[in-house]
Design a protein that fits this description.
8-stranded mixed sheet; 7-stranded antiparallel sheet; alpha+beta; 2 domains; about 425 residues; about 35% helix
Length: about 425
C-alpha cells in the first residue's frame, strides 16, 4: 500500500524565494497549455507534449532555471487532468474542463525520490541551470526537516499551506495486514455525532467529530465582514486576508486531526474485523424535508462535517490494518424501529426515536446503527445476541467505555467516568 508522510520544512528566505520562483514557472507552463486547449487545440498526450519543452525554453529562458523533472511533472498532470475530463464526458457526467491555476495558489512541486539528497535532517532539492544552460541562477535548496523521513520513499512533493509554511510529503510503500474473519460492527454516520456504532454483543460506540466548527465560523465571519469594508489591495485589506487564511488553515487542521483520530480508532483500536457503514451522502442531509428548524445546516454539512474525507480515511486504514469495510444501503434505517420494524417519519430535529407501536425509546443514531447491523447480518444467516450492552464515547481528549442497559428495552443510562469498566486511548 502507498502511504504519505507530511513533514514541515524550515526554509530560509532565499530558499523560499527559489521555491516560489519555480512553482510560478511551472504554473505558467500549465496555464499556457490549458489556454491552448481551451482555444480548440487537441491534446497530443504527455509524450508528444513533452517534446515541445525545448521550444518553450527558447520562448521563456527563465524556464532553464527550473529543475527539469519539475517541468516534466507539469505534462503528467495535464495528461491526468485531460484523461479525467474525457472519462467524465464518456460517462455522461458533468465534463468539468481543467481550470487555470490561480496565482495565489501554490503549484505543488514533485521531485522523484532518486534525485534528492537527505543529509541527517537536511533536505537538499536541486534547481535548474548550470552546464549548457549557463550559470545557475538559484542555488540548491537546503531545507531542515522537523521529523525523520520514512525509508525507501518514492516521491517528495513540496507544498505550502495558507499560513505560508512549507511541507514535504514523502510517499512510500508499506505491507498491509492480511484480512481475518471476525466479529462485525456497524456504524451510522451523522452530523451531531460523527459515527454511532453497535457490534454483535450490542455494545454501542459513540465517536464524536470536530466540535469547534461554529466558533471558527463566527471568527471567520467577523474577519470577512471587516475586510469587506476596506478598500481592495489596501494594507488593511491585505492584512485581514492573511489573518483570514491563518484562521481558516487552523480550522482545517483541527478538523482533519479529529477525522484522523476517529478513523484510526475504528480501523485500528476496535477488535471487530468487519466494519459496516451506511452509504450516506451530504446531499441527503440538506433536502427540503430536513430544513424546518436549522438554517445553518448547509454550512455545517458542506464545510464542517468532512464526510467524504472521513470515509476515504476509513478505506485506506481498514485496508492497511487488514479489516473489511462494507458500504451498505441505509435507506429508512432511521425511520424503522429496530424492535418491531415499524416505519414512521423522523425529521432531523428529532434526536430520540419513540416507537408508536412497541414503545421502544432510544437515540435515533443508535436505532439506525442496529438496523444497519441487522440488515448486514441478514446476508449471513440467523443472528443471536447477548444481553450485555455498553457505550463508547469519544471527545477531544479520549475515548471511554461505559456500561449501559440494553437500548431495545429502556433508554441508555450513562454512568460517570470513575465507574468505567475499561478505557481505550484515542
Amino acid at each position: 500500500m502507498l502511504l504519505c508522510k507530511k513533514i514541515k520544512l524550515n526554509v530560509t528566505e532565499q530558499d523560499a524565494a527559489t521555491l516560489e520562483f519555480m512553482q510560478a514557472k511551472c504554473r505558467s507552463l500549465y496555464n499556457w497549455w490549458i489556454m491552448k486547449l481551451r482555444d480548440g487545440e487537441k491534446w497530443p498526450g504527455w509524450r508528444i507534449a513533452k517534446k515541445t519543452l525545448q521550444e518553450s525554453k527558447r520562448y521563456d529562458p527563465e524556464l532553464k532555471q527550473v529543475y527539469g523533472k519539475l517541468l516534466h511533472e507539469v505534462y503528467f498532470r495535464l495528461d491526468a487532468a485531460m484523461a479525467a475530463f474525457f472519462r467524465r464526458t464518456q460517462a455522461g457526467e458533468k465534463p468539468g474542463f481543467p481550470r487555470v491555476r490561480p496565482r495565489h495558489g501554490f503549484f505543488t512541486l514533485v521531485y522523484p525520490g532518486a534525485y534528492i539528497t537527505i543529509e541527517k535532517k537536511t533536505l537538499i532539492l536541486p534547481t535548474g541551470g548550470g552546464g549548457k544552460h549557463g550559470p545557475k541562477g538559484y542555488p540548491n535548496i537546503e531545507a531542515e526537516l522537523t521529523e525523520d523521513p520514512p525509508q525507501d520513499y518514492r516521491e517528495v512533493a513540496i507544498s505550502r499551506d495558507g499560513r505560508g509554511d512549507y511541507y514535504a510529503s514523502f510517499s512510500y510503500r508499506v505491507k498491509e495486514e492480511d484480512q481475518h474473519p471476525g466479529e462485525v460492527v456497524a456504524f451510522d454516520l451523522g452530523i451531531k455525532t460523527l459515527a454511532t456504532g453497535v457490534n454483535e454483543q450490542e455494545q454501542f460506540y459513540h465517536i464524536g467529530g470536530f466540535k469547534g466548527g461554529q466558533w471558527y465560523n463566527r471568527q471567520l465571519d467577523k474577519i470577512r465582514s471587516k475586510r469587506d469594508k476596506c478598500k481592495k489591495k489596501s494594507r488593511r485589506y491585505i492584512h485581514l486576508s492573511k489573518v483570514y487564511k491563518r484562521v481558516a488553515q487552523k480550522k482545517r487542521k483541527k478538523q482533519r486531526d479529529s477525522l484522523h483520530k476517529a478513523s484510526h480508532l475504528i480501523a485500528h483500536k476496535l477488535v471487530e474485523r468487519t466494519v459496516v457503514i451506511g452509504d450516506l451522502s451530504q446531499r441527503q442531509m440538506v433536502m427540503k424535508e430536513h430544513q424546518e428548524r436549522n438554517k445553518y445546516r448547509n454550512r455545517a454539512v458542506f464545510n464542517d462535517w468532512g464526510l467524504y474525507t472521513f470515509t476515504e480515511m476509513l478505506k485506506y486504514k481498514c485496508h492497511l490494518y487488514g479489516k473489511e469495510l462494507v458500504f451498505l444501503d441505509e435507506r429508512n434505517t432511521s425511520k424503522t424501529c429496530s424492535g418491531c420494524g415499524n416505519l414512521q417519519t423522523m425529521p432531523l430535529w428529532k434526536r430520540t426515536y419513540c416507537c408508536t407501536n412497541c414503545g421502544v425509546v432510544m437515540d435515533r443514531d443508535e436505532n439506525s446503527a442496529v438496523n444497519i447491523l441487522t440488515r448486514f447480518l441478514a446476508r449471513r444467516g440467523p443472528h443471536t445476541s447477548s444481553g450485555a450492552c455498553g457505550v463508547l464515547h469519544e471527545d477531544q481528549s479520549g475515548v471511554e467505555v461505559m456500561e449501559a442497559s440494553c437500548p431495545v428495552q429502556v433508554q441508555p443510562q450513562i454512568f460517570p467516568g470513575p465507574s468505567c469498566s475499561s478505557t481505550i486511548a484515542a
